[in-house]
Amino acid sequence: MKCLIVYSTSHGTTEKASKLLSHYFEGNVELVDLNRSIFQPKIDRYDTIIIGGSIHLGTIQKKVRQFIKANLDQLLTKRVGLFLCCMNEGELAKEQFNKVYPVQLREHSFANGLFGGELLFSQMNFLERQIVTKVKGISSDVTNLNEESIRAFAKQMNEKIS
């Protein structure tokens, strides 16, 4: 089984989550950061596609949206998992997840995951720091990346594929 984990990361949190996920996943796993990749990955080479992104300024990264739009028909013929890194929890996190992934893809996916997130103040630009300070009232790095959620997502995907 060949698996592709395709993601976009703004400050590195989704990359961390993707790498952790790849360690728990069974089979041959390839990671592709849409921000660094010159070419769109050819998803016909993979049995399973996992797509991940984070909430950045209220939405998921443009590269993730473009990847889904360009490949939606083919994704609906694959085993798919979707995850989101975000600082919100509970119903608000679920609302954000539902907002950023198309309903057709969510309903088709084998697993959907909310992995928590990070506000990496030290990596933000001036404007981002100003917004985060004003909205969240923080001025230093904060993390709630949830390794247990990542492990549970991998377990769910592994069970469905086996």
UniProtKB/TrEMBL annotation:
Q: Where is the Flavodoxin domain?
A: 4-143
The superkingdom of the source organism is: Bacteria
Supply the SUPFAM superfamilies for this chain: Flavoproteins
Name a Pfam family for this protein. Flavodoxin_5
Q: InterPro entries, alphabetically?
A: Flavodoxin_dom, Flavoprotein-like_sf, Protoporphyrinogen_IX_DH
Supply the PANTHER family for this chain. Answer: PROTOPORPHYRINOGEN IX DEHYDROGENASE [MENAQUINONE], PROTOPORPHYRINOGEN IX DEHYDROGENASE [QUINONE]
Q: What is the protein's name according to its record? A: Flavodoxin domain-containing protein
